[in-house]
Amino acid sequence: MSPGRRTRQIALPLAMVALAAVVAGPARAAYQATVDSNVSAFSFDCIKINDTYPTKMLTSAVAGYRNLGYSTTGFSGPAFTRAHVLARTTADWGYYVHSHGDHYLNADGRRYAGFKEDAGLCSGARTVFSKDIAATRGGRQSNLVIMSTCHLGETNTTMPGAFSIPMVKARGSDWAGPNFYLGYLGAAWDSDEFAFETRFWDTLGPGFGVGEAFDKAKLGSFNVGFAANWYGSYLWTGRAGPVPTGCPKCL
Amino acid sequence: MKAPFLAPLGLRGARLLGAAAIAGAAIGLGFPGGTAPGDAADRFVAGGPATERAPLPSERAAPVLAAASTARLRLGLPEPAAARVDRVTDRFSGTTYDEVTGTDKAGRSLHLQRFDERGRLVGAVSFGWQSRGGRPMPDAESARARGSRLAADLGLGVSGAPDVRQDPDDSGWTIAWPRVVDGIAVLGDGVRVDLWPDGRVHAVVRAERPLASRPSSLLDEATARQRATATLGDLFGSRAGQTMIAAVALGWVAPNDAFEPTAPDAPGPTLRLAWIVEARTRGELAEGLRAVKIFLDAGTGALLGGDVLR
């Protein structure tokens, strides 16, 4: 047996151990992050293929939040429901979703930013409205929120407020607290979102906070018209938990 | 509630995760034998690092720093207190470039510039979100003129009228020249200049990926449309009737794994000529999916990948 073959034989169990560690995240339960990705509407159960983007983006986001110190769990399929989002959001310091997003008409007659649950449904998925998240969170502070959907980075989005992230772009010596909201403008193709987020996660680390990561993530190949937007604090590490107001060493 | 991370993914998803885990472990644990030599050990895997960087030795850094100094003046970027040069291997894009990061006295990053293996400027960004500044440019035409002058000064090789878009929250302008080769669009490639409202440079990107040989003969549009209809039937099964072809056009595309979980996670670095077919959705399918693109090899009609608009 060649050394390469022998190594390949032991690689799978080791890989599964490594993957389990990624899924479980480090023991920093005080700073929870939830990563939701809608896989079902475009999966083999509903059509005849599995679109690969939702799974890749789920994996990337789980790893990204974990690297920032969040106790991160990924959800998809029947576990990613509207009820699940609202049940977890009160404890979420970080939240990521990849799904169908828009400014949906609510039963109260007004439009709010929102996204579709997965719930394992091919159709008939319910909408998670920013209004519902806001009511559930009740003004609770959050850290890093990423809406990997169409439209929810637009200037009329109501989603940042649901997570108590001010719709300002605090930069330089400004400080809007330890928070950052990322979303996309208009209709955004999955390939662009995946490329942008891959670079965003890859940049975050020593010397590069969320603002620099946003700037570097834009340095790539994208479809014409792709655009991302952000609110919160440019000079912030993205790491989980509260930071003293005006922290002079936020990087 | 426990994280049902694997269960809903199905067989193909599980295969994808298995492949990703193997390659991830090979990279993370440093096993050269985890995958075939020269193959997935260098391959990007979702959730893993997209880039590797190593400082350039001083003798190789010197010409890069000189080029950066010249470009910095043309870009209007401030002189840094210090600069470092890294050779960056970008697994996601399949490229290698030298990256010069300028820092202030406190060590905070001020700006960066990227140069490809031919020494051409392929990227630059000024950090700090400096959207406040001097008098704002009055309109799109001013932004177009400013961006065009800058692109010419930097030798970015642009031609034609660019697309101009105002960025959200009055944070500047984006001026873009999509790449076109022999009249055929190259998806994702081109030159983009981002300006702050007063015309200072925010960022510059030049994407020019290699193109594969053009097929000796091309499917005609009618044949491509027929193949696309059949492919949509294969992909969507009984729901194919809820898709409607909206556009068919030739274009250079990066092959990808959009519909093939066992393919690499990153798009192919060499672009292929394809018929790009965009189908819009309707009915129940449109509740979660706005549109889909499929890439069909322009010569054979084989599925090269695609894209999804949720």
Task: Describe what this molecule looks like in 3D.
Chain A has 251 residues and is an alpha/beta fold. Chain A has one domain: Rossmann fold, CATH 3.40.50. Chain A is 31% helix and 20% strand. Chain A is built from seven helices and ten strands. In chain A, strands 2-1-3-7-9-10-8 form a seven-stranded mixed sheet, sandwiched between helices. In chain B, strands 1, 2, 3, 4, 5, 6, 7, 8, 9, 10, 11, 12 and 13 form a 13-stranded mixed sheet that branches. The N terminus of chain B is likely disordered. The longest helix of chain B has 20 residues. In chain B, 22% of the residues lie in helices and 33% in strands. Chain B is built from four helices and 13 strands. Chain B is an alpha+beta fold. Classes of the chains: A alpha/beta (251), B alpha+beta (310). At the A-B interface, helix 1, helix 2, strand 2, helix 6 and helix 7 of A face helix 1, strand 4, strand 7, strand 8 and strand 9 of B.
